[in-house]
Amino acid sequence: MREEAVTFMSGALKLAGVVHRPADWRPGEKRPCFLVLHGFGSNKSSGNSVIPAKLLADWGYVTFRFDMRGCGESEGEFGRIICLEQVEDTRAALTYMAGRAEVDGERIGLIGSSFGAAVSVYAGGVDKRVAAVVSSGGWGDGERKFRGQHPTPEAWAKFTAMLAEGKRHRERTGTSLMVPRYEIVPIPPHLRGNLAKGSVEAFPAETAQSMFDFRADDVVGAIAPRPLLLLHASTDSVTPTEQSIEMFKRAGQPTDLHLFAEVDHFMFGEENVRVRSVLADWLARYFPAKARVAA
After folding, report:
1. For residue 14, is it within any domain?
2. What angle do helix axes 205-213 and 83-98 make, rounded to 10 degrees?
3. Partner of 49 for a Cys bridge, out of 65, 197, 276, 280, CB 3.0 to 4.6 A?
4. Which string of DSSP letters, residue by residue, matches 231-263?
């Protein structure tokens, strides 16, 4: 496997990424490709990005893990994460990779974890160039997701009060109210070690509002007849499992849903053998790593 650090443009912003080419790639071949989307305020160096990028490259795909705007080494206001802007970054990454000599531009898929999974589903629903989507621990309805993450009346009141105060603060001062990471998306202490070095620790309240308003559920049905794979821990400590179940209900075919015991939210980072086996079987059936020779 060969790695290449690159940059590309998303609007006026320069974003940073790493291209992985399979070890057996030869000049003149065009391989199917996967864009690997990182999680909430994370970056391309997270285990949930590096591990699937390398795994898929070992299986014969060109892969591209990159930092969304405001994350990692990419330009943009650090920590300002807006869902629809990440969708645009994903579409820009797709355009960039489709123009590379080693990539079959008609066979580019998306694979993402958590926040990146939600963005993958949404981007696949609105951009017909996406050939396949793999979602790991994703979500389709921001409000319903947050209700599951802040389940008690007290927690929900505190969360919604923060959203309201964020709007008032912006109107009053012209600046953003900054909110600690775990007040937006609670993560149990025993899982926090999975966060990538350099992950964002505080976000503007507008980030939480953009997530609240984000509904991949509304577009997931438009992915069909392109294939969709939904993976989720059967008991997820971060994103409620029902999120993938509800997306499955709204999806067209072919769509597969797999719930896994003995794993938690950072599924790819755990390098679980069963997860890899399911992914490999699904890829062989719906999106095989067959190279074609460029004309």
Report:
1. yes
2. 80
3. 65
4. EEESS-SSS-THHHHHHHHH--SSEEEEEESS-
**Distance of alpha carbon 65 from alpha carbon 87, whole angstroms:** 15
Cβ of 128: how many Cβ atoms within 10 Å? 10
Residue 16: closest CA among 39, 35, 44? 44
**Selection from 91, 126, 140 nearest residue 257 by Cα:** 140
Per-residue confidence band for 294, with pLDDT thresholds at 50, 70 and 90:
low
Count of the separate structural domains present in the chain: 1
Expressed in percent and rounded to 5, the helix, strand and coil fractions of the chain are 40, 25, 35
Q: What is the pLDDT of residues 81-94, one digit of tens each?
A: 999 999 999 999 99
Strand blocks (E) in the chain:
2-10, 13-21, 29-37, 62-66, 103-113, 130-136, 178-180, 202-204, 228-233, 255-260, 292-293
Alpha-carbon span 285 to 289, nearest angstrom: 10
The β-bridge relationship of strands 255-260 and 202-204 is unpaired
Domain ranges, residue 10: 2-146+214-288
**Residues facing residue 135 across a β-bridge:** 112, 230
* Residue 188 exposed, middle or buried by CB count within 10 Å (0-12, 13-18, 19+): exposed
Residue 197 forms part of a structural domain: no
- CATH number of residue 279's parent domain: 3.40.50.1820
Query: Would 167 be classed as within a structural domain?
Result: no
- Within a domain: 151: no
> What are the two backbone dihedrals, phi and then psi, of residue 117, each rounded to the nearest 5 degrees?
-70, -45
Question: Tell me: the pLDDT tens digits for 34-85?
Answer: 999 999 999 999 999 999 999 999 999 999 999 999 999 999 999 999 999 9
Core vs surface per residue 113-124: b (16+ CB within 10 A) or e: bbbbbbbbbbbb
